[in-house]
């Protein structure tokens, strides 16, 4: 797709999230998990469900409630009905809009990139007829919505992303944005999610501590979970001295300067960034959650 139209490098617009419908991503190969939900997708699992499959001779262990008495009476041999279970995979999108996501060294904040990705995943689920729900991690608080399949509901959820994203940025500039682990919000998410759901985690994962890691492991035991990591190139490595003598960094209210001309400092910065990335990947591997890493330095067509 073409580059998404942005009216502001820091604020978000509903037009951006509607345009994200045209983003093409390679979706992850979901691993099989146990599901007890009913919906609009047929599985190959046989059992008591919504769709009749066939009749066969009764076998030891078959549920007697599934005996087909008409066929049994007609043939003189006990027959049982088999069903194909009708299932759906409601999609939950956990979007991190906490403090560390409001960073960018180019023309796009991580939070903006993440919001566009959330919209893309939601549109994809919409096209498959799945119900979609959002959890927006706002620091110590969260904004949760229940899954629904209607386009009107999804557009309302997109508008909530826009509103809360821009409110969070305003709080950042005022120095009032909350900072905290997503552990409590992941615990609430676990209470909302039933077995067999698809869960997309969109974050830089910088604030995920050991408690959050435990919740990730619980989520992935009976659900299809995928992690989408967003980072900025300046978080991975400082530019060389000849590219910039001083770098101005700000948290919205205060400003400081980094001098990348010190080679030892640049090397230490890179080592710490690599260690942080290894810790994130180890956490996700232990939870058996596959993940994909995105950089704000690239445009969406670069990932097609």
Structural notes for this entry:
By secondary structure, this protein is an alpha/beta fold. 35% of the residues lie in helices and 22% in strands. It contains 8 helices and 10 strands. The chain has helices spanning 14-19, 69-75, 110-127, 151-174, 183-192, 210-221, 233-236, 263-286, and strands spanning 41-57, 79-87, 91-96, 132-137, 142-144, 198-203, 224-231, 247-250, 255-258, 291-295. It has a 6-stranded mixed beta sheet, with helices on both faces. A hairpin with a 4-residue loop joins β8 (247-250) and β9 (255-258). The chain is elongated, with a radius of gyration of 24 Å. The model is unreliable at 31-50 (pLDDT under 50).
State the main characteristics.
about 300 residues, six-stranded mixed sheet, single chain, alpha/beta, two-stranded antiparallel ribbon, 10 strands
Overall shape: elongated
* Uncertain segments: 31-50
Radius of gyration: 24 Å
Question: What amount of the residues lies in strands?
Answer: 15-25%
> How are the strands of the biggest sheet laid out side by side?
5-4-3-6-7-10
